[in-house]
Design a protein that fits this description.
alpha/beta, seven-stranded mixed sheet, two-stranded antiparallel ribbon, 9 strands, elongated
Length: 318
């Protein structure tokens, strides 16, 4: 189902951004004007028989410059700090209200870490329920105490519903990713890692180098929308990045991936034997989930191969 209130929510969010930016800019501009205006010129203007409008008020402000600047600095900080907090909170509320996401949490323990997933290309069937991400959300919270947040980017439909908007070639999707990160923060989820698959890796590379992200894991990166500069900036990001590249990838096989990522040597490119772009088959999915967990929790054991707890079944044909 569509979310009819989303457009008005976004307009309100944009209006809030404009108000915060305009308020901060106004405070900074007034502060700069007071500090740069010539006091002799102000005194000369106020001494005229018919002084220009505002001249006497400007002189009064100059005479109380310390107090005036203190008020401006406090107001500016208010716009920057409290405005950012309100924007983040409202964005998270919009995200939750419109049910873009699903968060899978451990039942018995607090999560040790958090994964925010970005799905494959929505114009070719990619969505938050794409099989690797779905299995990640089902298994990791129960088997490794890792929380998993999945969401549909703009213009994407899945069993959870359809998001508003249109596909935007990994540009507007960056705002969707930021909202997902804000939602994870709002929930108090720890140690946020980004996991992108195919198109999702482009979104992560272009927009995921932000606080409080700890690192990124790239599955089958095609580098279709991400530029060389998008890759290069991760070299000095201070965040670990690992790319798992299938041996028989349809778009960027291991050797081509090593060459493409060579501009950021800190990114680990790991070839996965016999795998293909879509990671079809339990042997590949199970191996891939183990690899992901070991990146996030290096000292962790492999995921159990059997599960005796509660379990539901899923059919893609339903």
């Amino acid at each position: 189902a569509k979310h009819p209130g989303m457009t008005s929510d976004l307009l309100i969010l944009i209006l809030m951004v404009v108000v915060v930016l305009a308020g901060s800019a106004l405070c900074s501009g007034v502060e700069a004007a007071l500090l740069t205006v010539n006091p002799v010129r102000v005194h000369e203007l106020t001494g005229r028989s018919r002084p220009p409008a505002g001249a006497r008020r400007l002189e009064q402000l100059r005479q109380r410059l310390g107090r005036t600047l203190s008020v401006l600095v406090i107001a500016n900080n208010g716009f920057n700090i409290f405005g950012s907090m309100m924007l983040g909170g409202y964005a998270a509320w919009v995200f939750q209200k419109n049910q873009f996401s699903e968060v899978a949490l451990p039942l018995e323990h607090q999560p040790r870490a958090t994964i925010v997933c970005v799905h494959p290309l929505p114009t070719h069937g990619g969505m938050m329920d794409s099989h690797v991400l779905r299995k990640m959300a089902w298994r990791l919270p129960a088997m490794s105490d890792i929380a998993v947040l999945r969401f549909n980017t703009r213009g994407t439909a899945s069993a959870a519903g359809a998001s508003e908007g249109e596909f935007d070639s990994a540009e507007g999707e960056g705002l969707d990713l930021r909202a997902a990160i804000d939602e994870a923060q709002r929930r108090g989820l720890p140690d946020i890692w980004l996991v992108g698959w195919s198109f999702g890796t482009d979104v992560v590379l272009k927009h995921g180098n932000v606080d409080p992200v700890r690192g990124a894991i790239l599955l089958s990166p095609p580098l279709r929308f991400a530029t060389a500069e998008d890759v290069r900036i991760w070299q000095t990001a201070g965040r670990r990045v690992v790319a798992f590249v299938p041996e028989f990838d349809d778009f960027l096989p291991p050797q081509a991936a090593r060459e493409a990522f060579a501009i950021a040597p800190s990114i680990d490119v790991v070839a996965v034997p016999n795998a293909k772009h879509l990671w079809v088959g339990e042997r590949f999915v199970g191996d891939l989930l183990n690899r992901i967990v070991h990146v996030i929790e290096p000292d962790s054991e492999d995921l159990p191969s059997h599960w005796t707890g509660p379990m539901d079944k899923w059919s893609d044909l339903a």
